[in-house]
Specification:
The structure is a homodimer of 262-residue chains. By secondary structure, the first copy, chain A, is α/β, with parallel strands linked by helices. Chain A has helices spanning 18-29, 44-51, 69-91, 130-138, 161-171, 205-213, 221-233, and strands at 3-10, 35-39, 58-59, 62-63, 96-99, 107-111, 123-128, 142-145, 148-150, 156-158, 176-183, 202-203, 238-242, 255-257. Chain A is built from seven helices and 14 strands. Chain A is globular and about 50 Å long.
């Protein structure tokens, strides 16, 4: 039987609130089984951009990473957030190692084609080196990835953290029984985004398509759920979306994503 | 017989000139034996501070790292410089892994006492985990350290890159025959800092004390040379200061530092 591994993506406003982030990190550090953390950038990159006088460009709800934005993105993602997260995890007894895809050539990507839309310095994942990840996990090290990869020719590229998490879970499924958790501030996928009592406990692809069609699932939740279904279609064992309480094994919470109901 | 390892510190204006830095990284990547790179911050942290409206505080020629400076230092050292360096080294065929002392708990430090001078969030090295470094080196990974450590309680601390390099060389001398190189833009220790023909080829402690007394060696070269002599007193095999040509084994250049002349 394969060992289990948890791939946890955390982001959104969870990362912007220091108290909530520290609570999340304490819970994450307490998980005994092998684990990997992937974190988003929160609002810090946009905040720094504004301070530096840059105006973010958004196309179809997605941010463009210009040549001027890229250094700020690298500074906040790989510098400030990643290293503060690593230092905090170390203080909670978790032997964290902060990473971009460039480090030890873990995750290679290629710059997204500029047509039909030019998103700038954004990378689509090409390959993941699972052997080095396995060696680190065997040493008791917990990899902590920020949302950056590289093209192998010296170029760092901004890469969606949800996608990195899903692709890590897929890449590792030969070696482990992989479980993918998307941690947000909200308790999971909600029928009404303002009402946390409207939590959907189990969501299959058919229901997802219906809710998307009715605009009950929209904006950022759509690419997140696309990553969830891609993971399940590629043999990731279990996918859940929810808040920090997801990390406690004793109380199953959140929205369990499944391909189809039996 | 022990294997050899090179610990290379690079910094100063070498890091601020993109063409010179890429040349250095190409030469560094080409070194076949096990190696570790430690890089300084160049002028980028000060430049960012100024853009953010902060005024650097200098006491006795040393910069104070205030609570406001620390995030900028982390962003530039661990983010921008470290990750661009890693991505460039990867493109030159060197399997680099970017690190702070917090990553995998490599280098622990304690915050420097605030008396007689309060330098702020500055750390003095307490311990180095050589076992994890050895495991990485055995995997063909080249550690690339920036000038940051942690106290194990969640606090990242600014730590002099010259000292990190010397302490790494000392910590590794049980496992390797260690050689320490300080790479600058200048060809080595000069009798007249404006005249590169005034290179001192070999410098021992007696001569150093004499030149320091006569103010021929001054400012930043003093703490650098203190690190050199500390390394030699603690069984580091060879210590040299010079420019990028130091990295070529076929042409010995720079200033060789020794404890005393035979």
């Amino acid at each position: 039987m394969k060992d289990k591994i948890l791939i946890v993506k955390a982001g959104g406003s969870l990362i912007d609130c220091e108290a909530k982030w520290q609570h999340f990190l304490k819970e994450f550090a307490a998980i005994k089984k092998p684990k990997i953390l992937v974190h988003g950038g929160g609002k810090s990159a946009s905040a720094l951009s504004k301070k530096m006088g840059l105006t973010p460009r958004i196309i179809h709800g997605r941010r463009v990473t210009t040549l001027e934005d890229l250094p700020l993105v690298i500074m906040t993602f790989a510098g400030l957030i990643n290293k503060k997260t690593v230092a905090a995890l170390q203080s909670y007894g978790c032997n964290a190692l902060g990473l971009t895809g460039a480090d030890a050539n873990c995750i290679r990507s290629s710059k997204r084609p500029t047509t039909p839309i030019d998103y700038g310095y954004v990378g689509d994942i090409v390959s993941i080196d699972t052997s080095v990840l396995l060696q680190w996990l065997n040493l008791g090290i917990t990899p902590v990835f920020c949302a950056l990869t590289h093209d192998g020719h010296g170029q760092i590229l901004n890469t969606n953290a949800d996608t990195i998490a899903a692709q890590l879970a897929i890449a590792l499924h030969d070696l482990f029984e992989t479980e993918l958790l998307y941690c947000l501030e909200k308790p999971g996928v909600l029928l009404d985004s303002e009402d946390s009592d409207s939590l959907i406990k189990t969501l299959d692809y058919y229901q997802y398509e219906k809710l998307k069609h009715n605009h009950q699932i929209h904006s950022g939740m759509i690419p997140k759920l696309t990553n969830c279904f891609t993971a399940l279609q590629n043999d990731v064992k279990k996918v859940t979306i929810g808040d920090t309480s997801l990390l406690r094994e004793d109380c199953p919470t959140g929205t369990r994503i499944i391909l189809k109901k039996d």
